[in-house]
Specification:
single chain, alpha+beta, five-stranded antiparallel beta sheet
Length: about 160
Amino acid sequence: MNPLSFLPFIVLIGAMFLMTRSAKKKQAAAIQMRNEMQPGTGVRTIGGMYATVKEVHDDTVLLEVAPGVHAVYAKNAVGAVLDDEEYNRIVHGDGEDAFDVDGAVVPDDASSLTDADADEDTSDDAKIDLGKKTESDDAESDEKSESKTDGEAGSK
């Protein structure tokens, strides 16, 4: 056999070694980052939720997800430990990249989103038949059943 025929296999094995080595470095850096967490630190979970660390245990971490709301997460669920400046900029809108609220603000309730004139629309075109009986349908069926005689009630 020609020694050059083994060259593609050697290149492939070398590439696999480099990929696993870089993946192991990333994994070790993530473990170190999670081990360096301490109470008061801002974090982002792998799900994208921002929270403040309250307690750190061996495999879990207690996060404050909102003022007074605590949740226990696995340490592996922490995707990034943020410095104070970045955490405050993202969560509280501090700094020059603060949230822009010039656009439309969503109200707490939907009452301001409904049009007062839309409630007065009584056209049949605006209604959708969902197969439910209304009070007027019930009254009509009662009148029909009362007008039938005993002999007609069983036939259609």
